[in-house]
Design a protein that fits this description.
Layout: H1 5-33, E1 48-53, E2 56-63, E3 65-69, E4 75-77, H2 80-91, E5 98-100, E6 116-122, E7 125-138, E8 142-149, E9 155-159, E10 177-179, E11 186-193, E12 196-202, E13 206-208, E14 211-212, H3 215-223, E15 228-229, E16 244-250, E17 256-263, E18 266-271, E19 279-280, H4 282-288
Antiparallel strand pairs: 1-2, 1-6, 2-3, 3-4, 5-9, 6-7, 7-8, 8-9, 10-15, 11-12, 11-16, 12-13, 13-14, 16-17, 17-18, 18-19
């Protein structure tokens, strides 16, 4: 066949078409294998969340309010902001590059049984089932986490997602607030102990009974109580028989009562700010229970 200019142009055109089809096929294959989305949770529809890390199993369930299960099978009121923060954090997971495609690589990225599996439900339907693996940092501010959808083999790099922020135990979701003082409206503090009782009252200055208190000592005490929290929960009992009580009275809100009982070596504390929880945290004793002499200036 004589290769005329017309024939050469036809051959060249055919080659261009073949090349274009090949490139489109390759691109389509890559796009298909690399997911564009891993997590998309409508937080208003979530009814249950299960978090499994090793032998630790945490269940969060919505029953008029969020509840968190404890190892003994009981439930406590969960801190709603912690649950919402978890869901919002999961929604930030977006797939970056693919790190691996086969199960034999899972261990390298801690997305096997050593990872944290999070299952999110709407009633009985699973909305998300994802394994959160190893966390890493690039440079000083860029961080990432390896993740895998539980039913898939592929491991992805989720840029900007901090897997370490996912709470892995029940304490991460319990209401850990002990005390929050609005000191501007506080006008009296009553300390009632087995061997003594005294009261601080506020006029133009703070007074201890009929004596002026040391302003620096009172200010230091109150500043330490602007927000007090603890994750040292006490679950051996639901009530205490207090021996020590501190009552804070305000001009524009209900009083706050903190009660303490010494049980064995534990300082067990209950606060009216969070009546559903008991705390066994010795550091709380140092913050809240003060002696009379601590509010008087030296020499008074």
């Amino acid at each position: 066949m004589k290769l005329t200019t017309k024939n050469l142009l036809l051959i060249l055109g055919a080659l261009v078409i073949v090349l274009a089809v090949t490139q489109l096929t390759k691109r389509g294959g890559r796009s298909k294998s690399l997911k564009s989305e891993l997590v998309a949770i409508d937080t208003a529809k979530v009814s249950k969340i299960e978090i499994v890390t090793g032998e630790e199993n945490v269940t969060l369930s919505m029953e008029e309010e969020w509840k968190v299960s404890l190892p003994d099978g009981s439930q406590k009121t969960a801190k709603e902001s912690s649950v919402i923060s978890l869901l919002n954090s999961l929604n930030t997971i977006t797939p970056g590059r693919m790190a691996a495609k086969s199960p034999d690589k899972w261990k390298n990225y801690s997305v096997d049984s050593t990872g944290t599996r999070v299952k999110v439900f709407e009633e009985n339907e699973i909305l998300t089932d994802i394994v959160i693996g190893r966390f890493g940092v690039e440079g000083q501010q860029s961080f990432y986490t390896f993740v895998r959808l539980f039913e898939d083999n592929e491991v992805y790099v989720a840029n900007g997602f901090m897997g370490a922020s996912i709470g892995k135990d029940a304490a991460s979701y319990r209401d850990n607030e002990v005390l929050r003082l609005q000191k501007d409206s506080l006008f009296s503090i009553s300390f009632n102990y087995p061997d003594s009782a005294f009261k601080l009252t506020k006029g133009e200055e703070w007074y201890l009974q009929d004596r002026q208190a040391d302003s620096a000592s009172v200010a230091s005490y109150l500043n330490g109580l602007s927000f007090v929290s603890s994750r040292e929960f006490y679950d051996r009992s639901s009530e205490i028989n207090p021996t020590h009580t501190v009552i804070y009275e305000f001009s524009n809100q209900q009083e706050i009562k903190v009660e303490v009982q010494y049980i064995e070596e534990n300082v067990v504390l209950k606060s009216s700010e969070n009546p559903n929880e008991l705390f066994a945290d010795n550091s709380l004793e140092e913050k809240i229970l003060k002696g009379r002499s601590e509010f008087l200036a030296t020499g008074k």
